[in-house]
């Protein structure tokens, strides 16, 4: 089992039906464990480094504003490589218009990149993201539900 980072983005942190639906999925802990969850408002600099591979894209300034304007729910899960892959499949594709019917993003996302949930896409990125975010927020306790 290895670490991965999960974030309820503002469009699911504050829309209660979306938050409850995603929490129901996450709390099943089918093939993963929820190790921490906490409300936290990330500074813009943290979001800029979290999404550094998207610097220069036209939506980047919007993305940084969207993710840093309000407290969000951030947490750490542990999962195997296989179960993280399965979780990403259940999450669905990045853009809502392309997200697979029945996926979390298709059900709970809104439009474009307003896609309800961040989840690390692989064990290596998961380790790097957890390390980066741990400098800002404790990722060791569920303080959410
Ligand atoms: P994912 O969140 O599926 O891992 P990503 O890591 O490539 O996708 O991008 C991070 C976020 O950036 C994504 O959740 C929403 C935003 N984004 C990426 N590509 C986008 C696009 N083409 N249009 C709008 N938002 C986008
Ligand atoms: Mg990603």
Folded structure, characterized:
With 145 residues, the chain is of the alpha+beta class. The chain has a single domain, classed as Alpha-Beta Plaits (2-Layer Sandwich), CATH 3.30.70. Strands 2-3-1-4 form a four-stranded antiparallel β-sheet. It is globular, with a radius of gyration of 14 Å. Bound molecules: 2'-deoxyadenosine-5'-diphosphate and magnesium ion.
Bound molecules: 2'-deoxyadenosine-5'-diphosphate, magnesium ion
* Superfamily (CATH H level) name: Nucleoside diphosphate kinase-like domain
Low-confidence stretches: none
CATH topology call? Alpha-Beta Plaits
Q: How much helicity do the residues have?
A: 40-55%
- Morphology call: globular
Task: Enumerate how many helices there are, as a single number.
Answer: 7
Strand order of the largest sheet: 2-3-1-4
Any idea how many domains? Answer: 1
CATH architecture: 2-Layer Sandwich
**Average pLDDT level:** 97
Total DSSP E strands: 4
Q: What's the gyration radius in Å?
A: 14 Å
Helix and strand string, N-terminal first? EHHEHHEHHEH
Distance between the termini: 23 Å
């Amino acid at each position: 089992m290895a670490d991965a980072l999960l974030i309820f983005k503002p469009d699911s942190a504050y829309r209660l039906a979306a938050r409850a639906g995603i929490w129901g999925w996450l709390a099943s802990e089918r093939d993963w464990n929820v190790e921490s969850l906490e409300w936290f408002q990330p500074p813009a600099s943290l979001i800029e480094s979290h999404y550094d591979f998207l610097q220069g894209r036209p939506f980047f300034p919007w993305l940084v504003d969207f993710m840093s304007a309000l407290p969000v729910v951030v947490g750490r899960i542990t999962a195997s490589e296989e179960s993280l892959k399965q979780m990403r499949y259940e999450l669905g594709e990045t853009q809502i218009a392309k997200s697979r019917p029945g996926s979390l993003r298709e059900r709970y996302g809104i439009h474009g990149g307003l896609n309800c949930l961040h989840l690390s896409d692989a064990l290596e990125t998961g380790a790097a993201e957890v390390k980066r975010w741990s400098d800002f927020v404790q990722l060791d306790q569920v303080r959410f539900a």
